[in-house]
Here is the input.
Amino acid sequence: MSSSLPTTQLAWVFHKHGDPTSVLHLEKDYPVPIPSAQQILVRVHAVALNPFAYKAIAAPLTPFLFKKPGVPEADFSGVVVAESRESGLKIGQEVFGQVPALLVLRKGLGSLCQYVICEPALVTLKPPNVSHEHAASFPLAGLTAYAALVRHGGMKHGDGKRVFVNGGSGGVGAWAIQIAKAKGAYVVSTCSPSTRAFVTSLGADATVDYRSVQPSLPAHLAESYPVSDPDKAFDIIIDAVGTTVGRLYAACPAFLKAGGVYVDVAGTAHVDGLRSALSALGGLANRVLRPAWLGGTRRRYVPLLLNAKEMSEELQEAAELLASGTLKPPIDSVWRFENAREAYPKIMSGRARGKLVVAVD
Ligand SMILES: NC(=O)c1ccc[n+]([C@@H]2O[C@H](COP(=O)([O-])OP(=O)(O)OC[C@H]3O[C@@H](n4cnc5c(N)ncnc54)[C@H](OP(=O)(O)O)[C@@H]3O)[C@@H](O)[C@H]2O)c1
Here is the structure.
């Protein structure tokens, strides 16, 4: 690594688990990580927040799984300051990408700081006409949407898939709607009245107000998108909400085609103690393991974990779609680096409209 690089940096760090607004602190002399021969080092210009980071900081049951002290977050956009031969990227190039979630959790090497190490499989060149703030808003949520739609949903350009997005106004949902539309799909999304215009602006063909739909969301979907009508029923369901997954998945054979897939990206959305953790695990095991002949739901269920590894192809496609304006960054708000901690109550409220981004100057 070049000797002209600093050895310390500004970084948001947590030394113990708890509420991010009390355990995250801005440190002025945190060590700059040293990349391996395969990794590159990036001077960070923007970071996007994702729910997994506050869940990891606040997790009451699993602190031993996560490295401390640690820097949270995974998404970044910035400039290469130390290159690796394998990446093909050069010092001075503008890039965006994602630190693998396991590197954040197990090594504490997140992106909410000035210098981040990353791996070639999860980084690509940032188009010059896309700002760092906009580029940083894509990787983790956008690649999750790609994984759900393309890798698990089998979506191909122009194949006319019908998609239901539960939680279309959040980070994952906002990218999922746009990626599905870019591939020519028909998209229905839940939203509340306050986010309806936003979800429609992303391209959703129809919206469902999950707060007031009668008699219930599953019953409404069964009536409006019945599996008996292949022109109406869905091929892919992406659930980015989680709290209702038990009921929605159990009811989905009424509105998800027999060959369709239910991708649960929210996972353990609201675990706040031993009881809810056991209940979430029990529900998950039931959905994954219970066969149809024992009363299980007759539809494929995919729990999507933070498993992004080799996704440079999707990242490059996203870069092109961002550059052409086909994908529009769904930015809720941009925060100054020194105020990053103040953004956490917003993302933890579950009411963020798209992505929260931190500008790092
Ligand atoms: N598996 C993975 O790789 C992966 C990756 C990223 C995220 N995730 C997980 O996916 C989940 C969603 O993440 P995110 O970043 O998209 O979340 P988010 O940005 O926090 O989602 C907030 C949005 O959810 C909507 N919402 C809240 N309750 C809802 C409900 N009952 N029905 C429909 N919409 C509802 C809100 O819209 P209204 O204000 O209109 O209600 C709000 O706009 C989180 O649990 C996160 O941890 C998983």
User: Anything to note?
Assistant: The mean pLDDT is 92. The radius of gyration is 20 Å. The chain has two domains: 8-137+329-359, 141-303.
